[in-house]
Amino acid sequence: xxxxxxxxxxxxxxxxxxxxxxxxxxxxxxxxxxxxxxxxxxxxxxxxxxxxxxxxxxxxxxxxxxxxxxxxxxxxxxxxxxxxxxxxxxxxxxxxxxxxxxxxxxxxxxxxxxxxxxxxxxxxxxxxxxxxxxxxxxxxxxxxxxxxxxxxxxxxxxxxxxxxxxxxxxxxxxxxxxxxxxxxxxxxxxxxxxxxxxxxxxxxxxxxxxxxxxxxxxxxxxxxxxxxxxxxxxxxxxxxxxxxxxxxxxxxxxxxxxxxxxxxxxxxxxxxxxxxxxxxxxxxxxxxxxxxxxxxxxxxxxxxxxxxxxxxxxxxxxxxxxxxxxx
Length: 327
Known about the structure:
Helix content is 33%, strand content 25%. By secondary structure, it is of the alpha+beta class. The protein has one domain: D-amino Acid Aminotransferase, Chain A, domain 1 (2-Layer Sandwich). The model has no long low-confidence stretch (mean pLDDT 94).
């Protein structure tokens, strides 16, 4: 094994004992805890997003992955800067390897999911839906004759509701989402327009790096000035599925699963263990956690062209110092 890969694995194994599982920064502002992010809203209209190392799959939090929060923060910041001319976003500054300072927005009650391929392993995935004989998905009529992991005739928008922590998102058509959420149609349509534009930009960038941006999800909010803007994150391995172009071309004709470096790796391990989101989840072994982290690192470096150098300090004291909070 090359020396740099050995060093990376040593770094990731060492990081297993310093993962960021939760934060308690109540003096920063009102806290909202998501599956992966701890959000703190300030009285002056800002939001501090602390990206933890929690891993979620099947709409459940299942453990931690070393340095995942740092990787996601850096990758989200990379994409927010890169796509500002396509869609405005909420990022103000990165204040710590795990913390982004943002504009406080009113979140839209929908996730904009864009799909370029027919795939998935969950019970609600587009592929499961299709193989069961259904041809209508979120208002789109799918053609007959598709195989798993085929490219769709064109990218499609398949929005979903945003479930509370522990709940399941529901994919639905535009009209169904509007009826379920009562959100203004104009806000939905603007978010949909921005999502399709961002996906096209992400697809082109990924293709230039030898990758396929298979599908992704975006979240939007309304800024104080009334604009619909991007919030949360974009095009990270948590919100996006990436395949390697070269191996996809080799594997897909043989009916083999594509090589990926998103959290689908963890989903597949869980599915192989018989877990699909219901009941107690199995404990993820350290070697699976490290391999997942290695894939996050590879994703970051492949997409951004930068080398990932983690901050190995104890994350909680470092975050407090970065934000000027008392120890």
